[in-house]
């Protein structure tokens, strides 16, 4: 398991995730189609050229959010998460475009043991996504229910 248990996540800890992901046109169009998002900003190049400040299609913000969290999983919660509890304070200060590469860093903002489940803890993360130029394209805070290290030495599996 690559993910960290509750005890391994320290407040203030910053993780630079090594995996970057280049977003393709197919990613954006497929995600928009799968989620029935017909927003022309994502699927209509002509519209974007003529009627938007961007001059071209932008990547669906919900896809950007999902990818940002996804990039963090192997280093933080792969196999140790029970559930995501909330996503808050989502900001998209600039768009991603087809061909941009997303890089993510995460910080542990706070943590506490679960009051009702002694084998779990609640952790709040801040994820910051940047494009290949180092420009912030997304910021989000995520709260997750994370397993505590088993006392018998057995893993989550």
Short description:
It comes from Litorilinea aerophila. With 157 residues, this protein is α+β, with helices and mostly antiparallel strands. 24% of the residues lie in helices and 33% in strands.
Task: Provide structural commentary.
Helix content is 24%, strand content 33%. It has helices at residues 25-34, 40-43, 45-51, 61-76, and strands at residues 14-16, 21-22, 81-91, 101-113, 120-130, 136-147. A hairpin with a 5-residue loop joins strand 5 and strand 6 (136-147). The radius of gyration is 18 Å and the shape is elongated.
Tell me the CATH superfamily: Hotdog Thioesterase
Supply the CATH architecture.
Roll
The CATH topology corresponds to Thiol Ester Dehydrase, Chain A
Tally of alpha and pi helices = 4
Q: What's the alpha carbon Rg, rounded to whole Å? A: 18 Å
Shape summary: elongated
**CATH domain class name:** Alpha Beta
Number of domains: 1
Q: What does the main sheet amount to? A: 6 strands, antiparallel
> What is the straight-line distance between the termini?
9 Å
Average per-residue pLDDT, rounded, comes to: 95
Structural class, from secondary structure content?
alpha+beta
Structure summary, number of beta strands: 6
Helical amount? 10-25%
Query: Topology as H/E string?
Result: EEHHHHEEEE
Fold topology:
Blueprint: E1 14-16, E2 21-22, H1 25-34, H2 40-43, H3 45-51, H4 61-76, E3 81-91, E4 101-113, E5 120-130, E6 136-147
Antiparallel strand pairs: 1-4, 2-4, 3-6, 4-5, 5-6
